[in-house]
Every structure is written in structure tokens, then in C-alpha cells.
Design brief:
- The complex is a heterodimer of chains A (about 50) and B (about 725).
- Chain A has about 50 residues and is mostly helical.
- Chain A is about 60% helix and about 0% strand.
- Chain A has two helices and no strands.
- Chain A is elongated and about 50 Å long.
- The chains are: A mainly alpha (about 50), B alpha+beta (about 725).
- At the A-B interface, helix 1 and helix 2 of A face helix 1, helix 4 and helix 5 of B.
């Protein structure tokens, strides 16, 4: 059962990472304009050329 | 297609084909000292629209940042103070988009946005905590024992207790608020269950107990927060749309000073200021005409369809529409003294009456909360007696009872349905403003309509086009072309597309408040009010010198869907009443044309309210549909009320639901959806009741394990949510 000593912190760490990611998306107002964001991803402005 | 060969796609909107290079999320960076302008862009619909608008506006000098919100069809612009709203809207109409500046103060959607985000954060935290604790719980349920089980329980406690303290706060505060005034609401049993589950589980963990309910406490919090969030979002969407309607009418007036007319905010006006009202504009204040002659459309205030002549010395009221000539109006009343404000007071009284309406959820909570507490207490007492005083065991069972009966399904039953229903109504062009309006709409058993502006457009159409000699129609149309009076527009519209003789008219002049005259073939011709053109009788006439006058008859054009609406209401067996402030002649012709038997004409605003009160005293639940200020009192008094979006702000405020669609038959769809929603809510309560009937005896007899609680709770929540999706 020694493996628990690794697995529990790992699973908790993953959970916390997910939570932080969610917190970040919320802070960046990513749920304010779902329709617009869905359309923006189809624009060609961003991928005309690779980022410099 | 590789990403490099950019091709403008085919699209249906103007300006969509433009290339765009805006590269940051919010195009541009806001600078210091900029002002924020919100613009409504109702025709925007695609990705290219976003690019066109953002880039086009950013190219304007002085504009530093543009952010388009496609969901709300709105753009927020930061620009230096010398960029006017008009410059922006002009630029946008050049790109092919209708734009309207929105009044930021009226909009004020920030606070509800923040509330929704706050609940979303709590929902997220409880969701992540729930999943992690559930992982550990699964291990315990599948047989972890002794030290391992205790360790898992301790880790669960470390995650669950802080999460509960943070995420369940809304329930605690609401429950505390209710308890302080000695009342029970749904949040009291919720809070009690969460707190007891947490506390009891901690005690069990400390004593190496077998059962811990941390996962139950967390999933309870999670599901109920989901219900709260749905509730909040539904209302925010409707409220922000309603706020946008109000913000479209920025309260401004044209104040005349020595340097000419200037646009000022209504609240900056003082008594005895002179205000210029251009033809086609709405009069912003109560006042007296100083100079100018014109005709006024009073339909909003009284329901009359015929324009009223006005001139120097006449009294005008805010809300009337100036039709023909420019008017200079001296302000005689402001703010609290205006007629509009008196109406607003009336509305606030009625609003209070509506807030006392007991919603289905309230009624369910009133039965449910005491029942659950009694049950849990009974379980405690019974097991104390059976076990001969084992407090820990009895308390364990009482807590299990509380958790398993906890209103997961009940908490989701109403919000899930009203979210689906409000969404469906929104797509049909109906904005539900009031929280309980949907339920009240489902109970309606009588309908009262206003005529002008509600069932009709409030715009005249020529009635006797075929009876007028073609030459007269051609002359009238040629004269009418130069005027913006609604009747002129109606004549011009009727003449369009007809094969009429060509006529050439010279010296066309419009006399505000009277008509249009000119010369044709060396003869004087005039189109206008009968007494002005020199003819006997009433109404609009065309005279050619030396010939008998030709009369033009008008009727109000019907709104789209009026016939369909009345037919559908009849099929449903709902009695329809027509109350109009218009003259009996107009109303009786109108009512018989539509097959409405119960109508009254010349009704004063107070009488509308009285008729409504009398009907409600008879036990009728009346739906009032109206748009005028004369309907406001009746709208506020009615069981539920609908106002079209073309109504004045004061009227829309009084109504529970705003009809944004131009098609009135959508009202019937609204009734159907509301009734469907009501039966879904009742079904969901049924599901919750059946669930409790099975779960309670199990918990009561002490057979409920945390696993059983988790399964039962999730199943009932899912069943209820799925059932809500059937609303249509």
C-alpha cells in the first residue's frame, strides 16, 4: 500500500491544477461571450503565419 | 486550404468579407482618460462581423480599444472624449451595421455579472472537491478498512470542510436571514443537512467510525449551487436584455440656447427652458408650446389613433410624438411633477403586490422544510428509544435521514425548468423580466388587449385605395411624397406599384398641422385636413380647384400575427376583451373585423384599471397586453402582463414580460410554453416525492449507507434535469 503515499498527493495535485485552471478562465472572463469565442476561433487572423 | 492562403469566405452579411488583422482579444489597448461607449449591434452574427467592427472602429482616430461581445450583440469602445456617439454609429452604418449607443448608467449590468461569476466560482470549487472526495469514498466503499479508511476519511475531511465553509455560504446566509425573522425556507434544511453531515462525519472520523458523509455533503452543495447558477443566469439574460431596451432610449432633449439647439441629458433641464422637438421625435417633457404648429400622435398616452392639432399655447405631455412641424416647448414640469412620474408611483405599488405572489417553489418549501425536520427528529427519538440511549447511533440515523431527504431534486426542479422555458421564450422573442412571471402566465384564464400599438402598429394604412380615382391617387401621392406625416406615408405606400397617370406638380409646400399644397396644370391642389382644404366633413381630403373633393379613409394596420393570435386564443377557450382609448367608430369596426365580441371604446386609463380589478375580483386571472402609458396602471395590476418592445420605457417597466418579436402571435407560444413549464415543474415535484417515499423509510430504518445516499441523490437530480429538457 506504499504506493498510496504517491498516488494520493498526485491525485490531489491534479485536482488542484484543474481548479486553478478553472479559476484562471473565470478571471479572464472566458464565460462572458461563448458565442463570440466560438466564432473567433474560426477567424484566420491568428494563424496566417506562425508566431514569431 | 493551408492557413497561409487566406480567402475571404462567402457570407451573408455586409462587410463580412473584409480581411481583418486585429490580433489581440480586445483589439487595442485602452488609454488613460478615455471614455467607454457601449453600442448595440443587433445585426451582427458571424466571425467576420467581429473582425470588421473591431478593425473598422479601431481605424478611427481617437478610438483606442474595441471589444465585441457576440452573445450580447454589443460592442464596448474606449475612445478619447472628443469622439462622439454619432461618429461611431455613422462609421458602423458605413460598414453596413445598424448601431445604437446604449446609456451606460441604465445598462449597469455589472452587479448581476459579478453575482453570477461568484456562484460559478463556488460551483467550480465544490465540483472539484466533490470529485476528489468521491475518489477516496469509492475506495472506502469498495472495502478499505482500519487505518487506510481512517486516513481516507481524514483526507476527505481536509478537503470537504474548507470547501463547505466557502462554497455553501450562499445557503447559510439565506437560511440565517430567514431564521432571524422566524421563517423557514428551503435553505434552512439545506444548511442543516450540510452542516450536520460535515460535523457528524468529522466526529465519526475522529472515532474511527465506519460511515462518513463528506461526499454527500459536497455533492449536495454542488447540485444545489448548479440550480442557483441556472436561476441566476436565466434572470441575468432577461434582465440585461430588458436593460438594453431601456438604454436604447437615452433620456436626452434638445435645449435651445442663444447659440442654437444642443443635446443635453434630461436631468440637466430646468423649468422654463425651451426645448426643440423635431418632427418624428418624442416630446421629452411636460410643457407648453411656445412657437410652431404641428400635429401630435397621442396614441401612447390615450390610445387615440387620429393625430391631434397643436399650436402656440397648447399643453403637451412627455411621451407624445410630434408629427409634422418643429415645436419649441417651454418646460413646465420636471422630474417628480410630470405625468410620467405619477404613473411610475402607481407601478411601484403594484410591484409590491406582485412580490407577495407565492411561487410553486415557495409553496413546496413551506410543506417540505418542516416535514423533513420532524422526520429527522422522529428518527432520532425512535432510535434513542430502541437502542436504549445510544446518542451516537441515533444521531447518525437522523443525519442520514436529513441528507437523503435533502431537496437536491427539489432545488433543481424549478430552476432547471425555468432556464429551459426562458430560453425557449427568448427564442420566440419574449423576455421574461419577473421571476414568477412564467408561473403566473401559466394560470391565465382571461386576456385583455389594448388596441393601438398592441394589436395594431399604430400606423395608418389607406383603406379606400380602390375607390379613389387613379388621377386623384396620383396627385395625392405626388403631394404626399414630400411629407413625413404618417398619413402621407400611407398614401405614398398605397400608390407605390400601381399603374397611375404621370403628374407633374409645382410649388409643393407643406403647412405643418394642416397639409400639403401645390399647383398642377395651372390649378391649385391641396391634400390635408378637410377644413383646411375647404371641404365639408372630416378626415383627409384632396381638392383640385373647381372639382369636388376626394376623401381618403385610413385604418390602423394590424400587427403581424394578430389574426393568428386571436384564433389560437379562441381555440384555447380564453375569453378576449378589447379595451381602447380610441373612438367607438374606430374600435367597433376593428373589433368586428377581428371577431372580438367584448370591446369597450373611449376607456380612460383609470377605467382600464377598474375593469381589470372587477375581473380579478370575480376570480379571473387576467393577462393584460398593452403598450400605452394609459395601459400602465392596468399592466401593473394584472395577474401577469406583456408589453411590446415598441412601448415606452415606463410601460415596459410595469410589464412582467416584454415582447421583442414584431409578431404578436408569439404571445400564444408564450402561454403554451408557460403551461408546459408548469406541468414539468409539477412532474419534477412528483419525482422528488416518489423518491422521498422510497428513500425515507430506508434511511429511517437505518439501512442508508453513504453509498446509497450518493446514488439516490445523483439519480433524482439527473431525472429532474432531464425532465426539464422536455419543456417546449
Amino acid at each position: 500500500m506504499d504506493v498510496l503515499a504517491f498516488l494520493i498527493p498526485v491525485s490531489l495535485g491534479l485536482g488542484v491544477m484543474g481548479l486553478l485552471a478553472f479559476w484562471w478562465t473565470l478571471r479572464r472572463e472566458q464565460y462572458d461571450d461563448p458565442e463570440g469565442d466560438a466564432e473567433r476561433i474560426l477567424r484566420t487572423d491568428y494563424d496566417d503565419h506562425p508566431a514569431d | 486550404m493551408s492557413s497561409t492562403d487566406f480567402q475571404p469566405g462567402l457570407s451573408a452579411c455586409p462587410g463580412c468579407d473584409a480581411t481583418a488583422l486585429a490580433t489581440s482579444r480586445a483589439a487595442g489597448q485602452a488609454r488613460q482618460g478615455d471614455r467607454e461607449i457601449a453600442l448595440s449591434l443587433p445585426t451582427m452574427h458571424c466571425a467576420a462581423c467581429i473582425s470588421t467592427v473591431e478593425r473598422g472602429l479601431l481605424d478611427m482616430p481617437g478610438v483606442s480599444s474595441v471589444r465585441v461581445n457576440l452573445t450580447r450583440k454589443r460592442a464596448t469602445v474606449s475612445a478619447s472624449p472628443d469622439v462622439t456617439d454619432e461618429a461611431l454609429t455613422d462609421a458602423l452604418s458605413g460598414m453596413g451595421y445598424d448601431a445604437q449607443p446604449l446609456d451606460q448608467a441604465t445598462l449597469g449590468a455589472d452587479s448581476s455579472d459579478r453575482a453570477a461569476r461568484d456562484i460559478l466560482m463556488r460551483l467550480g470549487v465544490s465540483g472539484f472537491a466533490m470529485m476528489n472526495v468521491m475518489l477516496l469514498s469509492v475506495a472506502v466503499w469498495s472495502g478499505a478498512s482500519d487505518a487506510t479508511r481512517d486516513l481516507f476519511h481524514w483526507i476527505s475531511a481536509a478537503i470537504a470542510l474548507p470547501t463547505i465553509a466557502f462554497a455553501a455560504q450562499p445557503f447559510f446566509t439565506h437560511a440565517w436571514r430567514a431564521l432571524r425573522v422566524m421563517r423557514l425556507n428551503m435553505d434552512v434544511p439545506i444548511s442543516l443537512a450540510i452542516l450536520l453531515a460535515g460535523g457528524m462525519s468529522l466526529f465519526e472520523t475522529a472515532n474511527s467510525g465506519e460511515h462518513a458523509y463528506f461526499d454527500a455533503a459536497l455533492s449536495l452543495t454542488f447540485f444545489l449551487l448548479a440550480g442557483r447558477y441556472l436561476d441566476q443566469r436565466t434572470r441575468t439574460v432577461a434582465r440585461s436584455a430588458a436593460a438594453e431596451l431601456a438604454a436604447l432610449e437615452a433620456p436626452t432633449a434638445l435645449r435651445v440656447t442663444e447659440t442654437g439647439p444642443h443635446t443635453v441629458a434630461l436631468k440637466e433641464l430646468a423649468l422654463n427652458d425651451i426645448v426643440l422637438v423635431r418632427p418624428g421625435a418624442r416630446i421629452p417633457v411636460d410643457g407648453q408650446v411656445e412657437t410652431g404648429e404641428s400635429e401630435l400622435d397621442r396614441a401612447f398616452l390615450t390610445g387615440e389613433t387620429d393625430p391631434v392639432v397643436t399650436g402656440p399655447g397648447a399643453t403637451v405631455r412627455a411621451g407624445e410624438i410630434n408629427l409634422t412641424g418643429p415645436l419649441h416647448v417651454r418646460v413646465t414640469a420636471l422630474g417628480k411633477d410630470t405625468f410620467l412620474h405619477a404613473l411610475a408611483d402607481l407601478v411601484s405599488v403594484a410591484e409590491e403586490a406582485k412580490s407577495r405572489y407565492n411561487s410553486l417553489a415557495d409553496r413546496a418549501a413551506a410543506i417540505y422544510a418542516p416535514a423533513v425536520h420532524l422526520l429527522a427528529f422522529a428518527a432520532f427519538v425512535m432510535w434513542m428509544y430502541i437502542t436504549g440511549g445510544d446518542v451516537r447511533y441515533a444521531l447518525n440515523i437522523a443525519v442520514a435521514t436529513l441528507i437523503i431527504t435533502c431537496p437536491c431534486a427539489l432545488g433543481l426542479a424549478v430552476p432547471a425548468v425555468s432556464t429551459v422555458a426562458s430560453g425557449a421564450l427568448f427564442r420566440h422573442g419574449l423576455l421574461v423580466k419577473h421571476a414568477t412571471a412564467l408561473e403566473r402566465l401559466a394560470e391565465v384564464d382571461a386576456v385583455i388587449f389594448d388596441k393601438t400599438g398592441t394589436l395594431t402598429m399604430g400606423k395608418p394604412a389607406l383603406l379606400n385605395t380602390d375607390d379613389v380615382p387613379p388621377l386623384s391617387l396620383a396627385l395625392a401621392a405626388a403631394l404626399a411624397d414630400s411629407s413625413s406625416h404618417p398619413r402621407s406615408r400611407a398614401i405614398a405606400a398605397a400608390a407605390k406599384g400601381r399603374d397611375l397617370p404621370k403628374v407633374a406638380i409645382n410649388d409643393i409646400t407643406e403647412i405643418p398641422g394642416h397639409g400639403v399644397k401645390g399647383t398642377w396644370d395651372g390649378k391649385q391642389i391641396a391634400l390635408g385636413r378637410a377644413d383646411w382644404v375647404g371641404a365639408e366633413g372630416e378626415g383627409t381630403m384632396l381638392t383640385v380647384s373647381g372639382e369636388p373633393p376626394v376623401s381618403f379613409l385610413f385604418e390602423d394596420t394590424l400587427r403581424t400575427g394578430t389574426h393568428a393570435l386571436l384564433a389560437k386564443l379562441k381555440a384555447r377557450g380564453l375569453p378576449v376583451t378589447l379595451l381602447s382609448g380610441d373612438t367607438p367608430d374606430h374600435v367597433s369596426a376593428f373589433a368586428s373585423g377581428l371577431g372580438i365580441e367584448d370591446w369597450r371604446a373611449g376607456v380612460l386609463p383609470d377605467e382600464k384599471a377598474q375593469v381589470l380589478e372587477a375581473m380579478q375580483a370575480d376570480g379571473k386571472r387576467v393577462l393584460m397586453v398593452g403598450d400605452g402609458l394609459n395601459d400602465t396602471a392596468a399592466l401593473a395590476l394584472a395577474h401577469v402582463s406583456i408589453a411590446p418592445a415598441t412601448a415606452l420605457d415606463a410601460t415596459r417597466v410595469a410589464a412582467d414580460i416584454v415582447l421583442v418579436s414584431p409578431d404578436v402571435s408569439k404571445i400564444e407560444d408564450g402561454l403554451r410554453i408557460a403551461r408546459s413549464a408548469r406541468s414539468r415543474i409539477l412532474e419534477n415535484f412528483g419525482v422528488a416525492a416518489v423518491y422521498n417515499m422510497i428513500a425515507v423509510p430506508i434511511a429511517f430504518l437505518g439501512f442508508a449507507s453513504p453509498l446509497a445516499a450518493a446514488i439516490a441523490m445523483s439519480t433524482s437530480s439527473i431525472v429532474v434535469s432531464l425532465n426539464a429538457l422536455r419543456t417546449r
